[in-house]
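Every protein is a chain of amino acids, and every chain bends into a shape of its own. The protein below has been through that process, and both of its lines are reproduced in full.
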Amino acid sequence: MPHRVVDEGQDLSPGFHRLVRIAAVSVTVFADECQRLTETAHGGRKRLIAMADERAREAALKLGMRV
C-alpha cells in the first residue's frame, strides 16, 4: 500500500498504528484530543509523536469547519 490516511487517530490503539506503518509506505494521521471517546484513550498526541519516525512532522489546523 503506498499511502494510508487515518482519521480519528486519537482513539486507535498503538497496535493499530504500528500495523498501518508496517503495511504502508507512508501514513497521515488526523487526531483531535478534544474528541477522544474516553479520558484515557491511548495516550493521544504524545503517543503518536513518540511512534513517529524522523520524517514525521506535526501541524495544527488553523481553520475548523465546525462552528
The two ends are 35 Å apart (CA to CA).
